[in-house]
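#onboarding

Welcome to the new folks! Below is a worked example of what a typical request in this channel looks like: someone posts a single protein sequence, and someone else replies with the predicted structure as tokens. Don't worry about understanding the tokens yet, we'll cover that in week two.

Example request:
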Amino acid sequence: MKVTIAIAAFLLVGSVALGYAYIGGYAPFTSQFVQTCENAIKERLADPLSYRRIGVDDSRSTITWDEFFAEPERSVPESTRKAMIQAARGQPVQYVALIDYQAQDAIGAIIRERASCTFNSLTGSDAPTRTYWVKIDGERNLEWAVRQPNAATLHQRLLKNM
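Example response:
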């Protein structure tokens, strides 16, 4: 009898904890794609340790082959395009994550932002593990770093993480 009560109490506490985490924007199981996006966001922050996710909404949808090959790094000869399309088992997929977060800026003030993170996938099962492949608000971190006042320092830091 006591064991049954203990098990029931354990399950109740676990359910409440998972529910609280989920409502607070911390889903118990974060996808690889969202983890990579969060790492890319942290690379842009003055104080990466101050990052705290508030919420996330992620999705996947099919895109056309023209959309997939529109990215400059996917620019390949027509013969390679045709071979890739023929070898594919389906349409390419675009991962999208909208991440609300807060962090401290360079002077220590708390900022709240929303980042849009995207990745175009050939198969839909190859979520990136490197931040180089994802775009935050339409640009990769190396592209973003070039526009920053401390571009050389940021560029070196980003290259170390590749």
